Amino acid sequence: MKKVAIMAMCLLTLGACQQKTGNKDSKIDAVRDSMAQIISQKDSEINDIMSTFNDIQEGFREINEAQGRVNLERANPEKMSREDILDNISFIRRTMQLNKERIARLQEQLKTSSFNASKLKETIDELNKQMDEKSQQIAQMEEDLKAKDVKIAEQGKQIDDLNQNVNNLSAQNDQKAQTMAAQDKELNTAWYVFGTKKELKEQRILQNSDVLKSNTFNKDYFTKLDIRVVKTIKLYSKSAKLLTNHPAGSYTLDRDALKQYTLRITNPDQFWSVSKYLVILVR
Hints:
Layout: H1 2-75, H2 82-112, H3 118-154, H4 159-187, E1 189-195, H5 197-202, E2 206-207, E3 210-211, E4 223-226, E5 232-234, E6 240-242, E7 251-255, E8 261-265, H6 268-271, E9 277-282
Parallel strand pairs: 1-9
Antiparallel strand pairs: 1-4, 2-3, 5-8, 6-9, 7-8
Helix pairs in contact: 1-2, 2-3, 2-4, 3-4
């Protein structure tokens, strides 16, 4: 009996050790999974920030190209037209405005990111400084153009008439620029909403399992965005499903460390090609 009792105690001790080892392994697995999610989240955030930064750099490249065209035309007056110069300046101003919105978006992404990037903050300051310099350069271009108009007037035309023509052309150009900017904005504007089934039904966005089938849905419930600027939408939910039709491969639904979804639009032109309205069901 004594031997049996000793053997039973040994078995119980061995079982307890195995249970502790199993619990330890489970904790290690949980920590490993948590670390993997954090790393994945940081990778996604870095990719989002770099995507916006690349868009900003592309904007600066387009601005520099347009500036080069204006300078080239000013250096070769026989090959230039005043309207071409004004068109290029108008393009530069529109692209600068878009870049300002992208830089603001980059600042927002940095505020909500899970890592501290002091170097990136310095980069944003430098981008804003470049934007200020570009604004001064464009203002100088416009002043040079006005001075050129005055010089032409002094060479034989009536200054008053020319100034009136300049003012008319400037007004026409401003109107044209505003029209083009409005058209650009409209072409690149989309609307999105995410909500529970109950919320979407209350706003008549979802009716009898059909989405946006009636014009009675509440358009004010949607958030407007510029598809050139906004490429990520945080959904703050562990469950997400797109109800509107958007091509597969043009977006991903990624989870962060809290297992909440973020929509990442990897190909904006393709994503919004079917519909400029985005409806996402969350829980």
